[in-house]
Design brief:
This protein is of the alpha+beta class. Helices cover 58% and strands 8% of the residues. The chain contains ten helices and four strands, in the order E-H-E-H-E-E-H-H-H-H-H-H-H-H. The chain has a four-stranded mixed β-sheet, covered by helices on one side. Helix 1 links the parallel strand 1 and strand 2. The longest helix has 28 residues. The two termini are 30 Å apart.
Length: 205
Amino acid sequence: MATAMKLHWSPKSPYVRKVMVCAHELGLLPRLELVRSVAAMRTPNPALMMDNPLSKIPTLVREDGSALFDSAVICEYLNALAGGSLFPPQGEARWQALRWHALGDGLLDALILWRNEREREVPLQALLDAFELKTRASLQMLEREAAALREAPFSIGQLTLGCALGYLDYRFDALGWRGAAPALAGWFETLLARPSFAATEPAEG
């Protein structure tokens, strides 16, 4: 049996969820040793920093002891390791998948900054408004592309967007995004039915 890889992990991180969904889809879950790691912005984690000086999750430590940072890099590595098809190799399918991947990651970045700002003692309203505007604009674009998301082969693009929408449910339930994007919401429900998404719902702990 192959030596386990170590994944610095949290049940709440949408970026960790990306990696976990990839691992489920690619059949690599048995090769991952999950290490619960706290990565708070204001309190760097010394144990995590031994593998990632940025003190960020997810961080994957490979069998040879070398570490990979960032969910995008880790997901591409796992796909290559398994000979998967989450990253189309060429053509328009590749650019579409990478475009959706970038949009999903960018939306997650904005949502996390939005959450951090709203939890400050005195949030800056201009920032809150800007993050909400970007989020709603992203949802409008994805609503227009819901049919394309449904018809395209499942890839890192749909996977990442699904994690971003899941984070909206988890941290921004009051936004009521489904009402503003019903076609996107319908597509998202089909995604939630996949075992990889059902098994990686964010949770406190």
